[in-house]
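cron nightly-structures :: item 1 of 1
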Amino acid sequence: MSEKQEILPRMEVVDPDNVHVGFVEAVEGDSIRLMRDDPDPAAPHHRVPLAWVGHVGQTVKLTRSRDETVRACFG
């Protein structure tokens, strides 16, 4: 993924229809770790595979819908 270096902390992650999925906390290996919404420090971080990134511009646009991403990565 050549756009990996372009993904920066706090960038918004959206689905193909520009529906909000989350915000980038960090890129680790082959995934994007999203910022936690849960105030519980023991809550897990959600990760989205870099393979699902379709485009990086002002946002990180995924190739999967928000619903599909939530089912696969937040479950």
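cron nightly-structures :: done
The mean pLDDT is 89.
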